[in-house]
Amino acid sequence: MKTQTVAGRTWHFTRSIGRVVGSEGFYHPTPIVSAPGGTIYVANTGGAEGRALSRQIDHMQIDGEYIRAIGGGDYTWPEGLALDADENLYLSDAYANCVLVYDRDGKQATSWGETGSGDGQLQRPAGLAVNGEGNVLVVDGDNHRVQTFSPDGTFIAAWGTQGSDDGQLNQPWGIHVDQAGDIYVADWGNDRVQKFGPDGSFLLRFGSTFDDGGTLRRPSDVAVDSDGDVYVVDWGNNRVQIYDADGDIITGLYGDAREFSRAAVQMFDANPDYVAAFDRVSDEDMLEMSRFERPRAIAIDEQDRIAVTDCTRCRVQVYEKDKDYVVPQFNL
Predict the structure, then answer these.
(1) 83 CB contacts (<8 Å, ≥6 apart)?
(2) What is the DSSP annotation of 141-198?
């Protein structure tokens, strides 16, 4: 288990989940959301027609135990997932410019949204979040704004304009609402994350304009843990950057999947040629394969377990923040 301690905080890498193996693998996993009972939902972008695993939402335990697949073939290009208090699941389809809604049994209940730039209309909807009032926030990517809808899709409000000034957005992607109701938006085109009040008023931005290690390149998602630390999926730099509540950089996660997931082991067991191939891989190449490649989205549950979709490598990497960790002391 890889352990990292920085600024009085400790993270353990615990496991990877995935690989393309029957119903238990991922195929280009993109959005992810945590759910009650230590579970996660992951939406796959899918692959070519006829593949065993295509466009579906995988519901599974964060330890890798598979539960079910839902929404098979319902969507084309998944960009956001969110869960409300009744465990209704919302998925944004950037191709169809709509939001699909599934009930807690995994059945599609409804869908809403139409193409356009007017109030309530969407152009490439991306990240989704549910606020404390149960309303759905939609990142309206190509309209460079955030819109708020009721659960049935009734338009409530919109804020944001295209630009690079504080409070403006340029092709925003991921979104998160913290416990205080403040809103974090991954401002992809501006290489930063912005924090807004519940009414959309600008509060703060993350991502430095000078090289202090906190710079971002095309951030795709954002989440906040129970201590208020902010995690940004730094898509263009193949890492997750962690900031404190004031926007100062703490550290980064780069991927640590040096052991194969359960699904990958199944793949090896079924294909002896893969074993022979990996016997020829150098230690340096194995280390590189453990790293993130185009990480896409992040979810943090109530136990501060951090799950990141490692899109190109078709897996989810899981870390845990340890609040009680004591650095070992050695007498030399």
Answers:
(1) 33, 34, 35, 41, 89, 90, 130
(2) GGGTEEEEE-TT--EEEEE--BSSSTT-BSS---EEE-TTS-EEEEEGGGTEEEEE-T
Read off the amino acid at residue 278.
F
Per-residue CA distances from 320 to 11, 136, 161 (Å): 5, 28, 36
- Residue 33, classed as helix, strand or coil, is strand
Q: What was the pLDDT predicted at 55?
A: 87
Listing from the earlier edge strand, what are the strands of the sheet with 239-243? 221-224, 230-234, 239-243, 249-253
Q: Which of 178, 200, 173 is nearest to 189 (CA)?
A: 173
Which residue's structure tokens are 């796959």? 44
The rounded average pLDDT for each run of 10 residues, N- to C-terminus, in the chain (332 residues) is: 90 86 74 96 77 77 91 92 97 98 96 97 98 98 98 97 97 97 98 97 85 86 97 97 95 86 62 60 69 96 96 94 73 53
Q: Which residues of 102-131 are buried (b: 16+ CB within 10 A; e: fewer)?
A: beeeeeeeebbbeeeeeebbbebbbbbbbe
The pTM of the full predicted model, rounded to 2 decimals, is: 0.91
Rounded CA separation 249/170 (Å)? 23
CA distance 108 to 100: 7
For the chain, how are helix, strand and coil distributed in percent, rounded to 5?
10, 45, 45
Residue 162 tokens, joined: 């295209």
Chain-centre distance for alpha carbon 282: 30
